[in-house]
Amino acid sequence: MSRYLRPAARLAATARAQVARPAAVSPFLYKTAVVSGLQKRTYADATGVKEYTVRDALNEALAEELEANDKVFVMGEEVAQYNGAYKVTKGLLDRFGEKRIIDTPITESGFTGLAVGAALSGLHPVCEFMTFNFAMQAIDQIVNSAAKTLYMSGGIQPCNITFRGPNGFAAGVGAQHSQDYSAWYGSIPGLKVVAPWSAEDAKGLLKASIRDPNPVVFLENELMYGQSFPMSEAAQKDDFVLPFGKAKVERVGKDLTIVSLSRCVGQAMVAAEGLKKKYGVEAEVINLRSIKPLDIETIVKSVKKTHRLLAVESGFPAYGVSAEILALTMEYAFDYLDAPAQRVTGADVPTPYAQKLEEMSFPTEPLIEQFAAKMLRL
Amino acid sequence: MFSRATRLTRAVPVRAIAPRATPVSVAARRTVTTNAASAQVASPVPESEDEPFQVTLSDESFETYELDPPPYTMEVTKKELKQMYYDMVVIRQMEMAADRLYKDKKIRGFCHLSTGQEAVAVGIEHAIEKTDDVITSYRCHGFAYMRGATVRAVLGELLGRREGIAYGKGGSMHMFTKGFYGGNGIVGAQVPVGAGLAFAQKYTGGKRASVILYGDGASNQGQVFEAFNMAKLWKLPALFGCENNKYGMGTSAARSSALTDYYKRGQYIPGLKVNGMDVLAVKAAVKYGKQWTAEDNGPMVLEYVTYRYGGHSMSDPGTTYRTREEIQRMRSTNDPIAGLKQHILEWGVAAEEELKSLDKKARSHVNEESAAAEAMAVPDATPQILFEDIYVKGSEPEFIRGRTLDENYYFKN
Ligand SMILES: Cc1ncc(C[n+]2csc(CCOP(=O)(O)OP(=O)(O)O)c2C)c(N)n1
Ligand SMILES: [Mg+2]
């Protein structure tokens, strides 16, 4: 019994020692959500904050890292001449040339293995998958050749490589093009796995991924590329990196902790606003940022305050990221919970094409709000 | 293995009925034409619709690798030529309807059209039996139609309707019907699966064959070569076929492939490159391939030289990586429908008016089917519909998990 309680106690201690985060976290500014003129002006005038799309942020991160280190190169399908299937690598060929921005044939297993080899030999490849659905063709190279090599070699052989591309469901593309692989990569020892939500996340985490000496899986979201977020002056600089394993509290609250990642963070923010408006409750929204390692400390700290936890993600429910969060919360924060931790996930179904069915397969803002309200017995 | 004689044979334009064993050692390299109207009539065209007559294909219809070319003379009937014409026009009209519906925002996600490539789907179907199998990539609407799907079922699927060919579950890239195994979204993955269809055909006996299609881009996937190896080892009746439309998305064949002679990529498998803009040449090639497999010679690697008029998918304008002149040239001088039309008229198979009425028939058929598809209901947004067909009916687990615990769906057996 005491053994199971220890992690919670230890975390509680560290949490207390931590400097409290500022209460006013940057308001979420995402697509149709409120981007008030007032906020914008404040940013521009006072702090040099600029609007960036997630796409621009990723592009800037790539450009800066390519600039900083000539061991970095980008490889993938349509990344060079076509400027990227989702235009994330736009302009990079013109700027860095064909030696460093390389179009590959459609041969995921092949070019991933090749990129891993280049990494073993000391280069820092950024291996783009047109989408992570296609990385399934290459997952053996990611798991067996990249993730395990340092350990298998007794620490002799590192592999500094970044695997990136859009992950998760996209609109209307059916079962084979619409899947979230967070849990797949999150379960592999030797990998670091991150999933940005905002433009700052995207830039800071991608730069960190490229610089990190380990294999990193960087999971973008196709539906987020065009969304704009404010980017602080600090984040616009070329030395901006975000740490692995640190979540971000995007919205401070006291009644319920919502832990989420990637696009679902934005949905959770909207749901939290709804909860406030309708019921006057304050949900705290945690943006995980990092899937592996996972910042259980921030989660426990929040649960100590709110006593309730809801995990929100768009992956399949079974053996998923939310399942992990719930398990960890049970392990580390059981004593602080007033109710069982719960989750909203994708449904256990291959993604259907028809729109109404697709809508029933993934978390929506109203669903998150309703389920949270129910948890809070509102 | 190959006899010495056949090993020497290279792309020989032996006119007509060259007996298979004749070694000819002209090694002149020539490329297959994409002229869609290059055949000649070789016997008088009969009055009757069903009486066969002979046509001779152009010398430049085929190129071969470790293989004698197919006979250049083939039998056709008036009826069949008109049917081929009608089939190609229906496919084109269907793709144009899809184009319109997409632009009206009624079709979601990706939508890959085969405009320009109609002769491949039509030529293949006219060469095989209903009992043979076909498998292809996401560019699948024409194949689904030729395999027996109705236009309304295809368009209904694109519209996400309950009466779509996959009940609205699959979408543009995934359609299946008897003898047609998709409609596959992962580039190259259908190739070993297709070899598996051939494996089953051999396993169960009979003279069936599998027609396996993939793109010039897909041809670089490792699993294509894995499939080649197994098919050759086990002498499977597999007709691998690269639909070479010159581009995989924005990447030209030359930028993706170290050897762009896709028909030679089977290395130890004989290859046949065919004018994919000429429906007659496609039919002749596939018929020959089918005979090859039926004689237990194992697989063949075909290459259908073709061209896609539109972008890769509806979201690609298709003009950044190739010139407008190139597209225009293919459309105006190599169009498969215009090519066959020219033959039909020149050979006196049908008069202009009859073809016009076929055009009209095809157009109004597609319009009616399109309207019928639009009138179809969308699937009910119920858990019963959402969760049906994840598992075979009657074999489902007790329940399926929804997005929340509350949404769990219990099957009532
Ligand atoms: C494994 C995999 N990688 C990448 C993609 C994305 N993709 C879809 S189609 C395509 C191009 C394929 O070109 P080709 O094989 O020539 O076929 P075509 O589209 O010309 O018919 C690509 C890269 C995919 N669907 N699957
Ligand atoms: Mg192609």
Automatic annotation (TrEMBL), chain A:
Catalytic activity: N(6)-[(R)-lipoyl]-L-lysyl-[protein] + pyruvate + H(+) = N(6)-[(R)-S(8)-acetyldihydrolipoyl]-L-lysyl-[protein] + CO2
SMART domains named in the record: Transket_pyr
Enzyme Commission number(s) of this protein: 1.2.4.1
Localization per record: Mitochondrion
SUPFAM superfamilies noted in UniProt: Thiamin diphosphate-binding fold (THDP-binding), TK C-terminal domain-like
GO CC annotation, single: mitochondrion
InterPro entries: PDHB_mito-type, THDP-binding, Transketo_C/PFOR_II, Transketolase-like_Pyr-bd, Transketolase_C
Molecular functions per Gene Ontology: metal ion binding; pyruvate dehydrogenase (acetyl-transferring) activity
Record's keyword terms, sorted: Metal-binding, Mitochondrion, Oxidoreductase, Potassium, Pyruvate, Thiamine pyrophosphate, Transit peptide
EC class (word): oxidoreductase
Coiled-coil annotated residue ranges, if any: none
Domain Transketolase-like pyrimidine-binding: 52-227
Pfam families: Transket_pyr (PF02779), Transketolase_C (PF02780)
Known cofactor(s): thiamine diphosphate
Gene Ontology BP annotations: pyruvate decarboxylation to acetyl-CoA
Reported function: The pyruvate dehydrogenase complex catalyzes the overall conversion of pyruvate to acetyl-CoA and CO2.
Protein name: Pyruvate dehydrogenase E1 component subunit beta
TrEMBL record, chain B:
GO molecular function list: pyruvate dehydrogenase (acetyl-transferring) activity
Domain of life: Eukaryota
EC main group: oxidoreductase
Cofactor: thiamine diphosphate
Record function comment: The pyruvate dehydrogenase complex catalyzes the overall conversion of pyruvate to acetyl-CoA and CO(2).
Protein name (Swiss-Prot/TrEMBL): Pyruvate dehydrogenase E1 component subunit alpha
Residue stretches making up the Dehydrogenase E1 component domain: 86-379
InterPro entries: DH_E1, PDH_E1_Alpha_Subunit, Pyrv_DH_E1_asu_subgrp-y, THDP-binding
GO BP of this protein: pyruvate decarboxylation to acetyl-CoA
CDD domains: TPP_E1_PDC_ADC_BCADC
